[in-house]
Design goal:
10 helices, about 300 residues, six-stranded antiparallel beta sheet, about 30% helix
Length: about 300
């Protein structure tokens, strides 16, 4: 883990935990998650396995409150909209999820209080991790509409980020293309004052913090991209916008939650995309090895890589 990333993560942790956590991150630079829960020791995760750091002792409500103050830069009110979704993104693209008491108003989530659990998902920037998939997402030099599938936390965003960079800069399978990234949660580019902190390539423009539906249409009109990239599509409005974009000749790179292609096409809306063969490639990630490809399917659902 890079020194800068240490700082991004440590800066939001309770002060009393920082030295212990820094030592652990230096010992294992491939840590993927940090979990803080009231009444339990801090935990760290890699490859889906959680280890408790007993030397931290049991975390208190004050530890959780201190973390949320650092995460929100001492202004929880300013982040109410993000917290209603159950998470927010901090500098570096790291996602901070929360658990606690949900306050409802007319059936809608108004806020989350009495926070008792915090899940920090460490953003990865594994350069060239997408190199092995390039031969599968190009055909005769042309980029194919591609959807990356996996359950949460298995490297979809990391793989998408590196694929964007390689497509933008150009590679041995295709020339460089102009890419527009709609980064609704700030996890792809981790923009600071509009400038991506992750390397997304020379021909990439990023729309940060904008809902995917509006952002995809906005970038299509304003930036004339050859490729649009988005993370975690799922709503009917997301899928309708993608159908519209594909109809304009723009290519799509996207991710979605699913543990199999069969699971994906059972979801409302995705069956229509599948039947219309809008995605020419489906990349299914391995559930055991983060970021590794388990299978590749073509537009008809035929497995072309086992």
């Amino acid at each position: 883990m890079e020194k800068e990333k240490y700082g991004e993560i440590l800066s939001v942790l309770p002060i009393r935990l920082r030295s212990v956590m820094e030592s652990r991150m230096q010992e294992d630079p491939r840590l993927q998650e940090i979990r803080l829960r009231t009444g339990r020791p801090a935990g760290v995760c890699r490859d889906g396995k959680e280890v408790f750091l007993t030397e931290t002792g049991l975390l208190t409500a004050a530890d959780i409150q201190e973390t949320m103050e650092f995460v929100s830069r001492f202004s929880m009110y300013a982040y109410e909209d993000e917290l209603r979704q159950g998470y927010l993104t901090i500098r570096g693209g790291h996602r901070v999820g929360i658990a606690g008491k949900v306050v409802l108003q007319q059936g809608l989530i108004r806020s989350v209080r009495d926070i008792s659990g915090i899940h920090i998902r460490i953003a990865g920037a594994w350069k060239d991790c997408a190199l092995p998939v390039l031969p599968w997402v190009y055909e005769m030099g042309d980029l194919i509409n591609t959807l990356i599938l996996s359950p949460p936390g298995k490297g979809k965003t990391t793989l998408l980020r590196d694929l964007i960079r390689l497509v933008s800069d150009g590679n041995h399978d295709g020339e460089g293309l102009s890419v527009s990234v709609v980064d609704e949660r700030g996890e792809i580019g981790a923009c600071e004052r509009g400038v991506p902190q992750h390397d997304l390539g020379m021909r990439t423009d990023v729309l940060d913090g904008c809902p995917k539906v509006h952002g995809m249409r906005m970038m299509l009109r304003s930036m004339s991209p050859q490729v649009i990239a988005v993370d975690e599509i799922g709503s009917m409005s997301d899928l309708e916008a993608i159908m519209e974009i594909c109809g304009c000749g723009c290519r799509i790179l996207a991710t979605a939650h699913a543990d199999s292609l069969e699971h994906l096409v059972q979801k409302e809306g995705f069956s229509r995309l599948y039947q219309q063969q809008l995605f020419g490639r489906y990349l299914l990630l391995d559930e055991q090895k983060v970021g590794k490809i388990r299978a590749v399917y073509d537009e008809k659902g035929e497995k072309i890589l086992r």
